[in-house]
């Protein structure tokens, strides 16, 4: 089963493990960086920055129009001071994950969940 990389969203998740006193400042820095990234990259469709209840983790969720849009934007990431961000907020670990969206459900006016992105063209092969 192969996913068609041109037809669906591409989601990137980055989880940061930080000392409790650094969670809030890292989250604020990621929001500011995400706003700058959105101005430079039209393919960025949405960003979410989330903080864990234990105060030790921050999750950055970036939703791209496609894997192609992400790849086009990734060429400018070399200029990003990522390692400096990690040092400044004393990140003890960083986990990266990327996913191709197969389906996206949203709550409609009727209260039910409805498919926002279908799977009709999601698969090639068997």
UniProtKB/TrEMBL annotation:
It comes from the Bacteria. Residues 10-76 form the ABM domain. The keyword Oxidoreductase applies. The keyword Oxidoreductase applies. InterPro entries: ABM_dom, Dimeric_a/b-barrel. It holds the Pfam family ABM. GO terms for molecular function: monooxygenase activity. Keywords: Monooxygenase, Oxidoreductase. This is Antibiotic biosynthesis monooxygenase. It comes from Pseudomonas sichuanensis.
């Amino acid at each position: 089963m192969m996913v068609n990389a041109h037809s669906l969203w591409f989601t990137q998740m980055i989880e940061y493990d930080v000392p409790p006193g650094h969670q809030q400042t890292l989250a604020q820095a990621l929001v500011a960086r995400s706003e700058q990234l959105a101005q430079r990259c039209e393919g960025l469709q949405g960003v979410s920055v989330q903080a864990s209840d234990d105060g030790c983790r921050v999750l950055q969720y970036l939703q791209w129009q496609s894997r192609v849009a992400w790849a086009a934007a990734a060429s400018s990431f070399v200029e990003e001071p990522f390692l400096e961000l990690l040092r400044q907020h004393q990140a003890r670990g960083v986990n990266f994950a990327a996913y191709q969206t197969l389906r996206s459900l949203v709550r409609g006016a009727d209260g039910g969940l409805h498919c926002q992105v279908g799977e009709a063209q999601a698969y090639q092969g068997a």
